[in-house]
Amino acid sequence: MTAAFAAVTHDKVLGLLLGGALGDALGAPFEGRPSVDAADLAAEERAPSRLVHTDDTALTLALAEHLAQRRDAERLDVDALALEFARAWRAEPWRGYGSGTPHVFGLINAGVPWTEASRATFQGQGSYGNGAAMRVAPVALVADSLHHAAELGQRSGEPTHSHKHGQHGAACQAAAAYLALHSDPAHPLDRTRFLQDLARAVRSRPWHEKFDRATELTRNGAGPKHTAHALGNDASALGSVPTALTAFLTHPDDTTQTIRYAIQTGGDADTIAAMAGALAGARNGASTLSRGLISRLEAADQLHHLADQLAGHPRNPTVTSG
Ligand code: R7I
Ligand code: MG
Ligand code: MG
């Protein structure tokens, strides 16, 4: 566990949800660009337009609703969750989904069991994309421990991502969200310890190699372009989850800077910023986010409602009203 351990407040729960949605919606116009100019990003922040989210937030909403509705000991019903994800896609297929996921969701909606549907893509090996990681952060809100968060994350990924890297990505981001949520923003974050904790939760050599590189990058204060070059910025789990982690660990006490850094890594900007934003939001809370930006978020009301439900969850007795 990271050294300074804090109670989970309503503000942190809301911060996790809003930080993720903000990263997604602010990063969306830049998705696919090899690099992102700071002036273009600043213009997007100043624009008065509504901040429209993509598949990252659409599926995060589905997962958060699933968790908010389940008050029994079994926190995740993966069969039901698979159908809920597939329904979310059917309702809004235009949200910018990856290339393989619509095929999986189409099969699930046609009655194919998710165990089979999730193996129908990429010549039967299943997806190693970051789609399971991008939506996973809310599991941290109902997890009892770091390992429980990783386990819930992995299971929530299985309906769409049968490749182990896709599932490890979800486990990694879920565990990171748990650590960020329980970290105390009044004390400096021990970055090395944070990554060591993650390595205990994600037992996979390629991931450990990425954590080692992330440790170096944060220690050296690497900028977003350097980080993208060293760790990746594509739609694979291995090529984006550690990049998002590095964005957070570079600016752990400033959610806006975390999101800007993540977007400026370019490539899969919405997803890297959604993941990084959820981590920073969980640590620093919603009260540190720009009110102007939050008020432009398409799903702001829905996310506030979900935060109320999840913060008041019986599995979250530690939530305080701070
Ligand atoms: O993982 P997934 O839901 O994608 C999420 C991404 C995010 O950037 C969202 O914002 C949205 O834009 O999509 O969707 P998948 O199609 O399963 O995986 C994403 C991408 O990873 C695919 O389009 C492929 O380029 C790549 N990919 C693979 N390529 C080869 N072999 C994933 N798995 C494989 C594979 O097994
Ligand atoms: Mg997206
Ligand atoms: Mg994306």
From TrEMBL:
Entry cofactor note text?
Answer: Binds 2 magnesium ions per subunit.
SUPFAM superfamilies in UniProt: ADP-ribosylglycohydrolase (SSF101478)
The residues that the entry says bind Mg(2+) are T54, D55, D56, D268, D270, T271
Needed co-factor(s):
Mg(2+)
- Which keywords annotate this record? Hydrolase, Magnesium, Metal-binding
Spell out the InterPro entries in the cross-references.
Answer: ADP-ribosylglycohydrolase, Ribosyl_crysJ1, Ribosyl_crysJ1_sf
Q: Which GO terms describe its molecular function?
A: hydrolase activity; metal ion binding
Stated family: Belongs to the ADP-ribosylglycohydrolase family.
The identity of this protein, by name, is: Poly(ADP-ribose) glycohydrolase ARH3
